[in-house]
From TrEMBL, chain A:
Species, as recorded: Nocardioides pocheonensis
GO molecular function: ATP binding; ATP hydrolysis activity
Classification via InterPro entries: AAA+_ATPase (IPR003593), ABC_transporter-like_ATP-bd (IPR003439), ABC_transporter-like_CS (IPR017871), ABC_transporter_ATP-bind (IPR050166), P-loop_NTPase (IPR027417)
Keyword Transport carried by entry: yes
PANTHER family: ALIPHATIC SULFONATES IMPORT ATP-BINDING PROTEIN SSUB, TAURINE IMPORT ATP-BINDING PROTEIN-RELATED
Keyword Nuclease tagged: no
UniProt-listed Gene3D superfamilies: P-loop containing nucleotide triphosphate hydrolases (3.40.50.300)
Protein name: ABC transporter ATP-binding protein
The organism's place on the tree of life at top rank: Bacteria
Automatic annotation (TrEMBL), chain B:
Species of origin: Nocardioides pocheonensis
Organism placement in taxonomy: Bacteria, Bacillati, Actinomycetota, Actinomycetes, Propionibacteriales
Cited SUPFAM superfamilies: MetI-like
Topology of this chain in the membrane: Multi-pass membrane protein
Family note: Belongs to the binding-protein-dependent transport system permease family.
Subcellular location, record wording: Cell membrane
Name listed for the protein in its UniProt record: ABC transporter permease subunit
Keyword annotations of the record: Cell membrane, Membrane, Transmembrane, Transmembrane helix, Transport
TM region(s), chain numbering: 12-31, 93-111, 123-141, 161-181, 214-233, 265-286
Residue ranges annotated for the ABC transmembrane type-1 domain, each copy included: 87-286
InterPro entries: MetI-like, MetI-like_sf
Amino acid sequence: MTHALTDDAVTKDGCAIRASGVGRVFAGTKGHQVIALDDVHLEVAEGEFVSLIGPSGCGKSTLLRIVADLDHPTSGSLTVFGKSTHQARVDQDYGIAFQQAGLLPWRTVAANVGLPLEVHGVARSDRQTRVEELLELVGLTDFARSYPDQLSGGMQQRVAIARALAESPRLLLMDEPFGALDEITRERMQAELVRICSETGAAVLFVTHSIPEAVFLSDRVVVMTPRPGRIIEIVDSRPTAGHARDDEFRDAEEFFHTIARVRELLHGGPVAAARGVETR
Amino acid sequence: MTAPSAWARFAVRALLGTGGVLAVAGLWEAYKALGPDTGVVVHGVVVLPRTTDMAMPHVWDMLHKFSQPVNIFSGHQTVGSAVLDACVFSLKLAATGWLIGVVVGFALAVLMARFRLAESAMLPWIVLSQTVPLIAIAPLVRRWGSQIHIGGWTWTSENSVAVIAAYLAFFPVAVGALRGLRSPDATHLDLMHAYGVGWWRGLVKLRLPASVPYLLPALRLAAASAVIGTVVAEVSIGLRGGVGRMIIEYAQSAGGDPAKPWAPIFGAIGVGLVAAGAVGLIGLLLRPYRRGEAS
Amino acid sequence: MSLAATERAEATLRMRPLRDARFTTLLAPALLGVATIGLWQLVVDVFNIDAFIVPSPQSIWSEFLDSRSSIWHGMLGTGRNALYGLLIGAALGILGALVANAVKVIDLMAVPIVAALSVVPIVALAPVLYTMFGAAANTARVIVAALTVIIPVYVNTLRGLRQVKVVHRELMHVYAARPVFVARAVTLPTASPYVFTGLRIASSLAVISALIAEYFGGPVDGLGKAITTAASSSNYPLAWAYVLGSILLGLAFYVVTLLVELRVARHSSPSTSTVSL
């Protein structure tokens, strides 16, 4: 998992993602056009954790899909580690996790985690070692031989994250990966993600509609509005020096303060003081 | 980049569909023109057909046949109108068989949905029932029927054909309706339970509407099966008047007129398509219940 | 959370004790079968019904034992035609579905042909097929069986190929996986339960249609010919014994297909593992 950091392809500009003037227009029925993204400028540094937040229809998922080369901008340009998104995909510069775990039901947990390695022709023995490492990382060593339908939703999502990490990517794309989980599992998964990120040093682009989740995980929170999808502000949510992202941080003054700030932006004006956990 | 209108899509589909039929006809003629007269024989087995006019008449000859008189004795009646008459006759029998099959199949499905024991006891036999070669029991059905006299009413060969059609038609309905009746989400079942609704009212309020997406394809399959059953039963019982018997009669005269047996075969296809189309109309009426239908 | 609820329901279904499952899946249908046969025998005995109306199970069984070698011979003859037909039809059906799935134009062109083939009684083609391929060979019968098989296999395979989930397709896209790998890792495993549904329907259809095709001509080596011969010489218990043989043959085809399916597709979605169309 260290080979990503020592990778010789050092990024030219120190940026994992660089979007400038990105727009995406969908053709609707009968000539109507839907502007999903409008003039988006965003830079994600290497090793940085950036969340995209906003109501549905604000284009946050579209932006992530463009980064993943699952969609293409109709205007502007977007590069991943200084390359085109297509090249970055071919070079496998990123790992991805969706809202649905998307595991193959006929494969064991181990075979699911090893899937990307298998696609890219990693030898069986190397694959095995790596899969064991990954399963230990997400705490599922005992379930290597289980099938996805035997796991709970949270466990399935952990398998999906292990799969996303399989090739030690320097960039992780996560599209509401905890969206379908209950609050308790969700907080535990968030803590695990923080740990995994600090261990791997990967940059993360994280789509969510939960304010506390975005604030807890991110270095910066990108707040977006719909129709047309735009960035209205980028909020710095790094814990101040001396604070770690742990359960204590969830009760910290600055945590609530940042949450209130993000919420204010989303509602387009000041709102009653945050009470914390009930917001999702 | 606007989405094409429904009409444009329909036109494309119709055009391509016609193209498909023409492609088959073209393939037929191309092989007939290029293939060897004796057919392609591999290790003594005829793999591709003979190409003589006797074995493979021209497509246009088959179509032309419809406008010609049935035979020299029949006067004005053309093959086309004779086939049409036979088709109407068979379609009526198939419709009767379909109706019986739907009622029986649905009753079985409700029984199996109500009692799990009924399902496990009966379902294997229902599946097994379709491995019985229909044609073998067709003469027996007629013989059983001929024993039945109720008042002034006697069992006819037509009734036997309808019963045999029903024997094929009930199967898809029983299986499809069972799946449909079992399809409601656990949430909805819990909801009904919370409302204090009994099984039978739950059947009407929840299971029945939920079964529609499964039922409609089953009804369509049943219609096709009923037509197949009718034709096969007509052949094996020897009932005159329908398109099944006509296929045999015309095939016997194929020696002098190879294009003739194709006319009732096209007729049989027509009957099947009309039957399936009629069931499709039922689907239009039930449209609100078809949201989220698995295609 | 309806999803969680159904998951739970399925889990409990899977965890049903083996003893319980044994009773409902094996004993219940067996009991029903025995009861039906018993009642049949009783009715024939009590009302003294003539064999030409319905022979008793006992007389059918004794005929079956007496003529088991000729029944076996007939099963081999019909079974061979049905098997060739099943294999050819399945291969063509799967291949056709793969092509139709890849090329939209061909898919649309095939629609009316598939619709026509699925409603036409294929066996009615037997007379013209005998003139096309010769009445002395079994080719026409194999083709009748193959044509019957193609449609359910094609329709179900095509449906299966379309079940590939968006997540899985996008995942493969993100991995920049090659088409062969996508087919092997995602498309075929997704489609396989549907392919087997088609094959299961087709398996017994192949036997029936191969058998019925014998009624329209061709050489004398199958169950269909044997049934007519026995019936026309008024040996009804023997005719029924041949019918029994044909049921066993159809059942054998069905069960073998089922066993192959159980071996191949063990962990695909549980909802498709029951009897379906």
